[in-house]
Amino acid sequence: MRPFRYHRPAGVAEAVALVDAAPNAAYLAGGTNLVDLMKLGVQRPDLLVDVNRLPLDTVDPLPDGGLRIGATVRNSDLAAHPLVRRHHPLLTRALLAAASGQLRNMATTAGNLLQRTRCVYFQDTARACNKREPGSGCAARHGQNRDLAILDWSEWCVATNPSDLAVALVALDAVVEAYEPDGPRDVPLTGLHRSPGEHPERETTLAHGALITAVRVPALPFAHRSTYRKVRDRASFAFAVGSVAAALDLNGDVVRDVRLAYGAVAHRPWRAYRAEETLRGRPFTADLAARAADAELAAARPLTHNAFKVPLIRNITVRALTDLAGAVGR
Questions:
Q1: Does residue 100 fall inside a structural domain?
Q2: How far apart are CA 13 and CA 214, in angstroms?
Q3: How far does CA 182 lie from the centroid of its chain?
Q4: 50 phi and psi, to 5 degrees?
Q5: The domain spanning residue 311 has which CATH number?
Q6: What is the spatial distance between Cα 90 and Cα 94, in angstroms, rounded to a whole number?
Q7: Could you give the CA distance from residue 152 to residue 222 in angstroms, rounded to a whole number?
Q8: For a surface tag, which of 23, 83, 215, 290 has the fewest beta carbons within 10 Å of its beta carbon?
Q9: CA distance 8 to 189
Q10: How far apart are CA 294 and CA 199, in angstroms?
């Protein structure tokens, strides 16, 4: 067993100072991802800073009608919260699709956003992985890459982000509140995760030592007409092969506004801006939804084993939007 130090800070500033001063430190909340990686030898922190007792575990309404979700709110509590279920059903759907009840009882909001990839080469310390060991190579690119990226991958990494919650929050234009060594900072969730580039080990735009304290979900008048659809290899809980978060606003049959984001297709949760632009201002039809998905997926570069993801994402986009369009007025 590899020894490590453990500390429970009294406040956010103390927690950030501790991690900032230790190059190989990690925050511990639910531990559902970190502990697994420690067991595998993928992460070997010298210091764990336990943030569970910090006052970051509430869901609060905002004056504009949005929500502020604390970093340590458990996934089960968030999925069941009446404001979330009533006004942001895609968050509830994403969380309930993500993991078993036991895991949801432990997993936290911030931890979910910061999950590390489930690429099998990243988790196998005997295989080459630039994300785990920079400069070692990417065994996945020409290996078993069925579950990996079709968009925005690089020669150095083809991994995908595994978070269902992050996909839903990206669709809702959520903003991350973080406390960095230099003080508080707001980061749009669309700007939290990096593209892999030549440094896939740099997964977010946060400074070393930064602690996510909350996520703000702005008011979106049509967020109650939203859904999350996830395709996985088995009916029981598994990571996505492909997913879509969608919210739709119709004026009659014309798309007044729309939000779309994809999961399991890129190194980061993928906001489908091209698809949204294709849909806005036009009468909704299933054919329009398909053309919108095609516009977004035109940039796809499938790997050896995952070309099926292109029609898969297209089909679940059509299904999600068609279901939402059919629900309007009911």
A1: no
A2: 15
A3: 25
A4: -85, 115
A5: 3.30.390.50
A6: 6
A7: 29
A8: 23
A9: 28
A10: 29
Of 95, 99, 105, 119, give the one whose Cα is nearest residue 72: 105
Q: Does the residue 53 lie in any domain?
A: no
DSSP 249-304: EEETTEEEEEEEEEESSSSS-EE-HHHHHHHTTSB--HHHHHHHHHHHHTT----T
Q: How many domains does the chain have?
A: 1
CA atoms within 13 A on the CB side of 312: 23
Hunting for tokens 């931890």 — which residue is that?
A: 111
Q: What are the tokens at 215?
A: 């996520």
Whole-model pTM: value is 0.96
Structure tokens at 79: 């999925």
Nearest Cα neighbor of 325 from 227, 219, 229, 217 is: 227
In a domain, 35, yes or no: no
Say if CB 300 and CB 275 are below 8 A apart.
Answer: no
**165 vs 161: CA distance, rounded Å:** 11
Q: Is the dihedral of CA 49, 50, 55, 61 positive or negative?
A: positive
CA-to-CA distance for 282 and 233, rounded, in angstroms?
35
88 within 8 A of 223, measured Cβ to Cβ: yes
DSSP state of 241: S
List, run by run, the mean pLDDT of 10-residue segments along the chain (330 residues).
92 98 96 94 96 97 95 97 96 93 94 96 97 97 96 98 97 98 97 97 96 97 96 85 98 97 98 98 98 98 98 98 80
Number of other residues whose CB lies within 10 A of the CB of residue 20? 17
* The pLDDT value given to residue 328: 60
Q: Which residue segment(s) compose the domain that 303 sits in?
A: 226-327
- Reported residue count of the chain is 330
Question: Which residues 6+ apart lie within 8 Å of 130 measured at CB?
Answer: 136, 137, 138, 156, 157, 200, 201
In a domain, 118, yes or no: no
Sequential DSSP letters for 103-119: HHHH-BHHHHHTPPP--
Question: Helix, strand, or coil here: 27?
Answer: strand
Fill in the DSSP letter of residue 204: B
Structure tokens at 261: 């984001």
pLDDT computed for residue 329 by the predictor: 47
